[in-house]
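Long-time lurker, first post. I've been practising inverse folding by hand and with some scripts of my own, and I keep getting stuck on stretches where the structure tokens seem ambiguous. Below is the full token string for one chain I'm working on. Before anyone asks, I'm not after the true native sequence, just a reasonable design that respects the backbone. If someone could post their per-position residues I'd love to compare against what I wrote down in my notebook.
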């Protein structure tokens, strides 16, 4: 098992290196001159040349990449081409907001998917199971931003139970922080919970037909007891893989949801940087998002190895 985890760690490191090269090259070859964007159309050639030298974009691409990656590894993402602010501290602050949103959204998704998926599987030939399956199919078709708009319309505008947007840091006011997080987390989690419900249902259905569950029931265990004691762990193995993909989807979905609810996360920062053509900031944000997605996949591989007995014994 240790050797397998070490191999996955090496793959993660190589994938992150390759991703950093792709991100750098794509932003470097985009049309437009960062110095021209920063100074405006009336800048003199001399000032443009001076600014390009200041930004370091007058050097070969290989040198630029090596300097950028060397700085990123120390936590220095450089200074914004537009605002001249240091990017690193902004990324750290915005990342905290996004992680709260994604974590809460995933919690909502799991709390919905596990009981509903198990119910749909156990009662798949009955009306209640059919209703859950139909509801999950409907939920899959709803985009996260549309779910957010509907939630705002109902709970913020009409009922006025929750705020329609904005962000309160948890250390400042925990109650307002939770109230402001509920609707964004629901808009992400309900949609992903519907997707995950389908996988939980399928996985539990596969487990219900296994011989070891029939043996457990023949020894006197009730069907629910047999499933909880012997089935859910095995059913969780394929679901964990899907859960990793769902986390990655939540990271991408957070970009739009943050805009809907006016949250100061990485998604809002990315859209603002793209609008301002602040390529160095875009570069840093995309690298952080890609690194997060790769890290999630690596952790899923590790968890998959721990849960699956066959993989635990593999070299």
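-- Answer (accepted) --
I ran through it position by position. Result:
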């Amino acid at each position: 098992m240790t050797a397998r985890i070490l191999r996955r760690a090496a793959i993660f490191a190589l994938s992150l290196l390759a991703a950093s090269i792709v991100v750098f090259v794509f932003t470097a070859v985009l049309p437009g001159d960062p110095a021209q964007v920063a100074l405006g159309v009336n800048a003199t050639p001399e000032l443009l040349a001076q600014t390009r030298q200041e930004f370091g974009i007058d050097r070969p691409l290989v040198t630029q990449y090596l300097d950028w990656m060397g700085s990123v590894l120390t936590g220095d993402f450089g200074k914004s081409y537009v605002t001249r602010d240091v990017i690193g501290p902004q990324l750290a602050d915005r990342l905290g907001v996004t992680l709260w949103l994604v974590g809460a959204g995933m919690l909502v998704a799991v709390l919905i998917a596990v009981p509903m998926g198990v119910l749909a599987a156990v009662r798949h030939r009955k009306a209640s199971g059919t209703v859950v399956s139909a509801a999950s199919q409907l939920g899959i078709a709803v985009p996260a931003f549309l779910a957010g708009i509907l939630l705002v319309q109902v709970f913020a505008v009409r009922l006025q139970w929750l705020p329609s947007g904005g962000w309160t840091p948890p250390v400042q006011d925990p109650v307002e922080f939770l109230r402001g997080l509920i609707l964004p987390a629901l808009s992400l989690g309900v949609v992903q919970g519907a997707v995950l419900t389908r996988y939980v249902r399928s996985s539990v259905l596969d487990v219900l037909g296994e011989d070891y569950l029939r043996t457990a029931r023949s020894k006197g265990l009730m069907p629910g007891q047999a499933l909880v004691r012997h089935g859910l762990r095995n059913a969780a193995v394929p679901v964990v893989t899907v859960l990793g993909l769902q986390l990655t989807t939540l990271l991408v979905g957070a970009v739009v949801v943050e805009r809907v609810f006016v949250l100061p996360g990485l998604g809002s920062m990315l859209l603002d940087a793209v609008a301002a053509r602040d390529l160095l900031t875009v570069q840093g944000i995309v690298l952080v998002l890609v690194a997060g997605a790769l890290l999630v996949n690596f952790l899923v591989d590790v968890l998959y190895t721990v849960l699956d007995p066959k993989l635990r014994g593999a070299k």
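A couple of notes from the structure itself: The chain has a mean pLDDT of 81. The chain has two domains: 1-82+276-315, 99-273. Happy to go over any region you disagree with.
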